Amino acid sequence: SAFRRGLIIDKKRGNVLKVDRHKYVRTAYHGMKTELSSAERKSIYSKEIATFTESNYVNIDTLFTPIDSMLFSQLVDLKDLKPNVIKQSYEQMYKDIRACVDLCHRDGVIKDTVLKDPASYIIYDENIVPMLRRLRKSGKKVFLLTNSMWEYTEKVMEYLVHGTGDHKDISIWHDLFDVVIVGGCKPAFLTDNYLALFTVSPQGYLKNVEDRESCNLQYLENKSKIFQGGCWQDLHRMLEITSGDRILYVGDHMFADILRSKRTLGWRTCLIIPELEHELETAQRESKLYGEVLTLRRLQYELDEHIDTLRRLVENGDESSIDLLSDALQQSVDLKIKV
After folding, report:
1. Which residues contact 73 (CB under 8 A, 6 or more apart)?
2. Cα–Cα distance between 16 and 10 in angstroms, integer?
3. Prediction pTM value
4. Which residue spans within the chain are E strands per DSSP?
5. Of 255, 250, 229, whose CA–CA distance to 63 is shortest?
6. Mind listing the pLDDT tens digit for each residue in 24-63?
7. Cis, peptide link before residue 130, omega less than 30° from 0
8. 20 to 30 A from 163, CA-CA: which of 18, 72, 213, 226?
9. Are strands 15-19 and 143-145 parallel, antiparallel or unpaired?
10. Virtual torsion, Cα 52, 54, 55, 57, nearest 10 deg
C-alpha cells in the first residue's frame, strides 16, 4: 500500500503529503490518484511556514492510522466527483472517519473478524518461537505486555505458536513467557500506580490480587503468571528488579510503547519499524547507484569551489578566467542534470 507511516494528512485541502526532514513537501496527492505538480505544491505549501503540527495536519505515525489516510483519500475523490452527495468539508470528513475507525476498535468488530481467520490478517513468523527459546535459555526473563484482552491474546498467540502445526512440543504458548499481562491499558500502565491487578485463569476468569507485594518470581512459578491490568511497579516486582534499565521493551507504537516507558521509567526500548525492511532492501539493491550519486555529488562540490575561485579571479580583473568560468558553469549544469 502507498499509505504508510511517515505521511501527513492535510485535512483542510484533502491532500496526503510526503514531507522531508527539512519540512519540504516532496510529494502531494489530492485523493487517490491526482498528484500535485511541483508548481501546485509550491504555491500551496511554500508560501506558509508550516511545522505540520498545526490543527489541520495529521501525522500518520502509528500502525493504526494508515487506514485513516486511505479512507480519507477515497472519500476526497468521491466528494470531488459527486459534491452533491458528500456536502461535508474535507475536515469534517476526516473527523467522521476518525470517529468511525475508533468505534470499530472499541466495539470489537475488528478483533472479532481477525479471530475468525487469523491466517488472513496475521503474518506467521517461524522465527518467533526459536527467538523466545533462545532468550529464556540465555537466562533472560521474557514478558508479554499487551492492551488486548485475554480472549484475543490467547487466540492470536496460539496461532503464532501453533498456527502451521509447528512446535508440537509446546503444549501451551504461555510456557514461552515468564509473565503475561493482558489489558495493560498502556500508556496508563506506565504512569498510574493505582490500577487494579487481576490474575487470569485459562478460561478467562478474573480474580483480584489483594496482596500485590507477594507477586514475585516464586508466585509466578507456583500460582499464576497470567495477569490483567496492574502497573509498571507490579511488573518490576514480578521480575524482581529495582531499576528500569534492566528491562528491554520491544514495541511498535512510538508513544504508548516507546517514548513514555523510556522517559518515565528509564526502560531500554526497541522500536519495531516494519517499513525499514523495504528501505533496507532498496538500499542494498541500489547500492551501486547510491555510490555513483555520491561520486557525482563530490565532483559537484569540488566544481562549485572551482567556480567560486574563478569568479573571484574575474572580479579582480583576470580576463583569462572568463572562458574558464563559462565552461565550469556549463559543466555544473550538466552535472546537476546527471545527479
Report:
1. 3, 16, 29, 31, 32
2. 6
3. 0.80
4. 7-10, 15-19, 25-30, 34-35, 57-59, 143-145, 179-182, 197-200, 206-208, 226-229, 248-251, 268-271
5. 255
6. 999 999 999 899 999 999 999 988 778 898 899 999 988 8
7. no
8. 226
9. unpaired
10. -10
Three-class SS of the chain: CCCCCCEEEECCCCEEEEECCCCCEEEEEECCCEECCHHHHHHHHCCCCCCCCCCCEEECCCCCCHHHHHHHHHHHHHHHHCCCCCCCCHHHHHHHHHHHHHHHHHCCHHHHHHHHCHHHCCCCCCCHHHHHHHHHHCCCCCEEECCCCHHHHHHHHHHHHHCCCCCCCCCCHHHHCCEEEECCCCCHHHCCCCCCEEEECCCCCEEECCCHHHCCHHHHHHCCCEEEECCHHHHHHHHCCCCHHHCEEEECCHHHHHHHHHHHHCCEEEECCCHHHHHHHHHHHCHHHHHHHHHHHHHHHHHHHHHHHHHHHHHCCCCCHHHHHHHHHHHHHHHHHHC
Domain 119-242 has CATH 3.40.50.300: no
Q: What ranges do the domains of the chain cover?
A: 7-107, 119-242, 286-338
